[in-house]
Amino acid sequence: MSSFSLPQINDNPDGGWGPSSSNLPSQFKFKDIPYAPYSKSDKLGRFADWNDLSGDSRPTNLGLSSTQARGGGPGGRRRDGQPAFGSGTASAFAYFHAEDESSFSVVDSKAGATRRGGPMSRGRTPGRGGAGYNRGGGAQRGGRGGPFGGRGGGGQRGGRRGWRDWEKNGRTRESSVAISPDWAMLEEVEFHRLAKLRLEVDEPEDLETYGRVYPYEKSYDRITTRTEKPLQLLDRIKYNPTTSDDPVIQEMASRDTATIYTTDVILSVLMTAPRSVYPWDIVVVREGNKLFFDKRDGGPFDTVTVNENAADPPQDATAVNPNNPNEKIAVPETPSINSATSLSLEATYINQNFSFQAVIENPPPPAVDFSKPNPFYGPDETEPLASCGYRYRVFDLGVTEDEDVRICVRTEVDAYMPGQDPRQGRGLVTIRALNEFDPRAPGAGGAPDWRTKLDSQRGAVVATEMKNNSCKLAKWTVQSVLAGADHLKIGWISRVNPRDNTRHVVLSTTSTRPADFAAQLNVSLANGWGIVRTVADMCMKQPEGKYVLVKDPNKPVLRLYAVPANAFTAEEEDEEAFDGEDGEA
């Protein structure tokens, strides 16, 4: 019977699996090759992989897959998703081709033609926007029928770049006011600094109420796209004078009611400044220890913007200056109905007439008069007044209890809800309107067709408008909160024909509470009050005089300029006209 002897066992003093390099016998053939760890998931690849033609078509040996032999692929994974055998090992087992291929050349050196697709494959090739029939980019958001009604482009807005898109990015806007070289720039503040400010403000104090308000017509809340109503043209008078021209504010300033005086229209622009894209300016007058925030006649505060925050907002037509080819000038001809200026005038017209139309002027229920009549309606006026109530309110902007910094604001409301008492500050309503011009026109911002989507996909339509008109909606919300309104009514008004900007219809009306809508828009009133207090402190550091706060037309920057005392007045205009006549003579 043969005997059995145990083989020699080499212990690994370093721990772990496998033999120790120090205990390997000298005759061991693979002594200089490091140990390769393995796992149960390792699989043996092909000896020669002739199927993988994605790159190097040479066969790979030594039991390694072609991807591993070339070192390609993250983690050494094959096409089937499984890890290649020994993908985490050292390169000692990899195959390297050491032959010189510098003398090798391809017989056919002609570059292959790039396939651009046939007549039915527009936008289907990878180079022109990925798969599908969309004209947009590769990662689509659902095409034209997607959740937000976009025309494509998820990874990049708009997908494939359109005709002369390179010019759109290079367009520059003009400032809202001509900055004279004699003006001295005093301060400059970036928007990202304004976005970090916060100031908590308590409930305001009501001083006086003026005007008359009519009840809101509740039937407009039940309008649908199938029961649309035409927008009527009503002749009504509605006053919105600047701060210095308000006799009530002048009287309050004489009694030292507050430190700062302004209106809700001007204050809302300042409180939502970080959202603004278009240029604007505020005239600041310091008299003693008082500040007056004014607007200029014919300035940007008298009109309503359209799609200001869209990725490609509406543009005014421009032409190349013949004296300077690199400079573009505005076209003096009649602008298009879808230009920025035309849309702004159209939106202003729609907002005024919708607020006039959405109230009940004939009782019942009757109109309600505030404590005092309209302070701007003269005895010689013959046209009827629009439904409007003015509430003069004072907010305390003091940081400490001992600090006396108060701001007096003239706020406006447009109607009241029937059954409520507006004289007690209950049921007050502000009325605004969004307008649709042409979903296919440049500057539409990917807005869906309201007539087909407003009833069935209202959330998508609202989300698109909140994106394209973020600044405008934020200003309306702030104005409603400042006025203490309980309801904000927003009408959805579209053209009867996309090519006609004179006839419109009311498709629907949305009712919301201003505080809730501010939360949806991510509007922070504390941040807005912080901006107001910062600007006020910046102006109070300057001596008495006139200043102008200008939003840069192309950068998110605010600048404060010192201007002459007669700037932006009728006297200055007369002097300029007189100088022009002398020059001609």
UniProtKB/TrEMBL annotation:
It holds the Pfam family eIF-3_zeta. mRNA cap-binding component of the eukaryotic translation initiation factor 3 (eIF-3) complex, which is involved in protein synthesis of a specialized repertoire of mRNAs and, together with other initiation factors, stimulates binding of mRNA and methionyl-tRNAi to the 40S ribosome. The eIF-3 complex specifically targets and initiates translation of a subset of mRNAs involved in cell proliferation. In the eIF-3 complex, eif3d specifically recognizes and binds the 7-methylguanosine cap of a subset of mRNAs. It comes from the Eukaryota. Residues 300-314 are annotated as: RNA gate. Residues 1-11, 57-69 have a biased composition (Polar residues). It comes from Lentinus tigrinus ALCF2SS1-6. Residues 162-174 have a biased composition (Basic and acidic residues). This is Eukaryotic translation initiation factor 3 subunit D. One of its GO terms (biological process) is formation of cytoplasmic translation initiation complex. InterPro entries: eIF3d. Belongs to the eIF-3 subunit D family.
